[in-house]
Amino acid sequence: MQHDPEERRRREEQIARDLFAQLSPLDPFEGERDPAGELDAEEQVPPLTAEERELVVHDLEDLDEFQRLLEPRGVRGICMECAGCEETHFYAWEIMRSNLLNMLQHDQSHVHEPPFNPRPEDFVTWDYASGYADAVTEIGQPDN
Known about the structure:
Blueprint: H1 5-23, H2 50-70, E1 77-81, E2 88-92, H3 93-106, E3 123-125, H4 126-139
Parallel strand pairs: 1-3
Antiparallel strand pairs: 1-2
Helix pairs in contact: 1-3, 2-3, 2-4
């Protein structure tokens, strides 16, 4: 069943807005003078190009497939090496999805809190998940 691409885009944007609103911390200075206004302005993030947006949408589709194949096998999400801090970050499926959707909506992912005591064996790299999905597709094994 094919979905209207425009409807899918609207649905993804609504999901991103809802998740962003749920996951964003409360502003302690809402309605008051924010002392952060005295700091230097943050660098504006340039909007995603059409090609970058297409890649993010493709990543969302891949993520759905990875979760469908790997979650029943006990995998809880994706892990990635962070270039900024050189540590491994662990993203549960919904957090990774939220980050990708937020990139479509706001041109950047939001900051997340790392999981408390993640079990590294419960997470796989994007490359592993991609290879696993390719192998399942290639050999045509059933989902379970």
